[in-house]
Amino acid sequence: MIGPNTTHVTLLERVAKADDDAAWTEFCERYGPLIRSFARRRHVDAAEIDDIMQDVLMILTKSMPKFEYDPAKGKFRSYLKTLVVRAVYRKTFQKKSPVLLEDIEAAAAAKEDDPETEAIWEEEWRQHHVRQAMRIIAIEYNEQDQQAFEQYAVQGIGAQEVADDLGLNVDQVYKAKSRILKRMSELIRQQVDEEG
Description:
Blueprint: H1 8-16, H2 21-41, H3 46-63, H4 76-96, H5 101-111, H6 115-140, H7 143-154, H8 159-166, H9 170-195
């Protein structure tokens, strides 16, 4: 389970220690949905998405013991994007035709700067931050506030209908939405500052 107070930097430091299985589990919980969702959006067969996840984890397993987080050298998000995009396209190119490994690697590397790939990665990265924020929201707010937020802010159900459904008054629905949106903004801003 992802700890609500585990920072990106401390998680990477723990993952860099090869013997911290809990850190790898947390890493997979945090970044697995991002990797899988990106692969689905790039039309990878469901049966192959776990292969891509494993490919990315294998590369990370080999590189993390030497990894030292230094934001001045580049953002982890860019590094992860490179690994994920290349894993997705390696799988895609290998499936299409038996070509040389160097050709597959070159074609996969070329896809990193593809505008469509970039747009999908950015959208998935934003959703990644929303998912992380919502995990904390689920801990910090009561069920009724969360349901009011979900129905009113996300599903677009009218405030009065939500209030009637949940046994609240309309003002409570507005306040739940306002508090949760404010907290989500704070959480996402913290994540972006930390992860890039």
